[in-house]
């Protein structure tokens, strides 16, 4: 956003109420007023004028490609997958604590400029992991997959419910 003052400002906000912005429908209206106030205030403390070279406007949309939308997978499927992973962890006689976890996220972002650019992004992420804590006497060992401390699988791994006995996904590799 370019403010009406002699400088520039920037505004942003999250999804919310629809509004019209340069002929495009924006999904932000709730935080926009506050963001515009901040942008105008920021432009008031401008030191040297900033000049950007002219660029043609960009109108584009990106969405994470996926085969299965992790947010549409039934909760029962997700719970069964987590319970299967937990059962594998608990096969170890010394494993006293086990944890299987999963997260799915959809983030929507929009960018608009006064020069006519309008870029939308829909980012879909999901991942899962597991941790086993083995205890014997006064010794404690913690092992986790895929990474330490609640590591999450890379986005290429899909929540499909086909975990095999080794903990690998048969369908995804």
Give keywords.
173 residues, 2 domains, disordered N terminus, 16% helix, disordered C terminus, 32% strand, 4-stranded mixed sheet, alpha+beta, PmbA/TldD fold, two-stranded antiparallel sheet
Structure characterization notes:
The chain has 173 residues and is α+β, with helices and mostly antiparallel strands. It has two domains: 1-52, no CATH class; 59-166, PmbA/TldD fold (2-Layer Sandwich), CATH 3.30.2290. The chain has two helices and six strands; from the N terminus they run ββαβαβββ. Strands 3, 4, 5 and 6 form a four-stranded mixed sheet that branches. The protein has a two-stranded antiparallel sheet with strand order 1-2. A hairpin with a 2-residue loop joins β5 and β6 (139-145). The chain is elongated, with a radius of gyration of 24 Å.
